[in-house]
Amino acid sequence: MTMSVAAPIGGDVGDWVTAHFEEFGVLRGQIARPMGFGFTMSLDMTDEERERLASHVQWLEQHKNYEVSENRRYRRVTPKDPQSTIILADGTMIDCFVIDISMTGAAISADLGVEIGMPMALGTVVGRVVRMLDPGFAIEFLTRVDYDSLEHKLICPRAELRKRLLEEA
Question: Exposed, middle or buried, 143 (CB in 10 Å: 0-12/13-18/19+)?
């Protein structure tokens, strides 16, 4: 069984990793493939442990989807490529990992200290921090983004974002 882990650090193929998850407990395994914002790891588990984890993941997914459908105005989606860029009010660009997005906001993980109300842009869309998450934070956009253009406007690695901004200037 393998799992992808979004993390601020990586490692080399074959490195051993011990990861602590509130929902799953301690998971150990080896890095199978590095990624831009983390890695894929091959879990070191018995068949019984794998069954228990799979059952727990399925239960969490069903439970989360039930709760979310009751509380959300706009559905949230996980972007195909979660790597993007935040632009702070002073123009500083920071790489980030986008956890999920909707027409009115996004959940983000970044190596950045933020405060509620802090203005920033995710990709080309301006918003403000409205909630702290573990890990990361949520921003609410100043204007609603059309569902069909969500990923195009929000998912912008730094080089692509600079190019877009120069073209618009």
Answer: exposed
What pLDDT does residue 68 have?
45
Q: Scanning the structure block, which residue is given the tokens 């998850």?
A: 21
d(CA 144, CA 141): 6
Cα atoms in the 13 Å half-sphere on the side-chain side of 60? 9
Please calculate the CA angle 52-12-55 and round it to the nearest 5 degrees.
10
Element (DSSP H or E) covering residue 47? helix 47-71
Element (H, E) at 161: helix 158-168
Gap between the Cα atoms of 78 and 87, Å rounded: 21
Q: Which two structure tokens, joined as six digits, stand for 125?
A: 């869309």
The pTM of the full predicted model, rounded to 2 decimals, is 0.57
